Amino acid sequence: MKKIIIFISIVLAISSCSKDFLKEEPKAAITTQTFYKTQNDLDMATLALYANFAGVFDQVTAPVYGSDDITVLRAGNKFMYSDFDVFSANSSSPAYTNMWIYLYNTIKQSNALLANYSNAAVPEDSKNVVAGQAYFFRAISYFYLTRLWGAVPLVETTVTDYTIKVSQPQDIYTLIVSDLLKAETMVPDNYTGDRNKGGVNIPPTKGAVKALLADVYLTMAGWPLKQTDKYALAAAKAKEVIDNKTTWNIDLLPNFADLWKKEGQYNKETVFGCYYNGRAAGAAWDFNGNMNGPESAQPVEEGGWDDGFAELTFFKKFPAGPRKDATFQTDMLVDGKLIPWTECQSKHPYYHKFVDDYTYNPVTRWGDWWGDHTEPVIRYADVLLVYAEAKAMSGGADQSAYAAINAVRNRAGLPNLKVAPSNTAFRDSVIVERGWEFAGLEPNCRWYDLIRTETVAKANSFRDPAEEPLIGKPDDTQHTFYWAPIPINDTDLNSNLK
User: Fold this and answer.
1) How many degrees, rounded to 5, is the angle at CA 210 between CA 207 and CA 214?
2) Distance CA 80, CA 464 (A)
């Protein structure tokens, strides 16, 4: 990833200039027609994909604040997060524009690579590996876009179209599945060299593609598509990952807390992740460092930014054990003394997952505003829970489904799940377990589960009276406030997006 800063401006320029007045043909210019020629060109293009997609998660993901596990004070520049928390967000909110931009930049670069990779004078297998990664990144980018914004522009070319209309989720998912099925046949099981860190694969492997496809199928079985036949496909694809986990060197870490330690930046539970290096020469925070911690997650008493903390009802219901201990920070260091969260300014416990970083000193509790903590986009725990839910909702909650959820529960210090009275009850238990496991601002956070299970309003109905009162009223029948508004910058440029 250290090469990113050298070439990122070149690749961005390649994917963005398309105006008629730029139709000049200088002999030495780099264009999409002249760039994708060598293996080095293709490698640079894939690294640029990683860099742009990493930008999606290097700061707070504002739309997920509508979930019942995270909140924030309604003051200062935190209004941009609080607006989503109290269901009062509008299209001019600056808090989620960067995420939209990075996702579409990733898509546009994927499109450019897919349109030109075949021109490279390299072996066919090498070209396929590159194309497979582009299909993966385009698919996962659209997966986040349609879950957060619903109907969005479906762009499959490098041409900028200011008249394009939005496509409905069904069409978006059709492309996502198609891309992932292609990627599954093209990317390798493992990588070598600097794309493999101590046995941990950095680019997407076949295992990562299968895991993402399982999650996509599970989501398609819920709202808005409600294609319940996809449960069986989700279970089958997740089972492939579970049965072949040694192929990709993935598994649960024995200790949940190890996921969030600075020493665990590369760990085998991360099936696919965004990796950052804030110490790289010439590093820029939006392409190298992760701004989603430490200071973003720390309380103001410790010099933090107070960007978010746990909702009280969620925290109180969270089962005690090593997972809860590792998830939350429940005291603050003030003038050399520890005070409980009940006495701090926010009067909330904080999420501790992304705090431990190379800049963070656990004694003084000081950390910089950017670091290199990994964002685990897909964890093996997610694969297990996808399988458990999908198996129950397709073939029934058999021993393998219980084994999958119990592996996650036991690691968290919890006993085996009691036998559920029905498959639906088992499914509900899995959803609850996912809430505890992926609490906070993890890339695969609780908000997406509330959307697909149509329980946004239900979850928020238990909001503690001490929280900021809701301004908007989500409705699980009408699905109000389920999707974020398209950023105003785009609707101003294209009225068809309004």
Assistant:
1) 140
2) 21
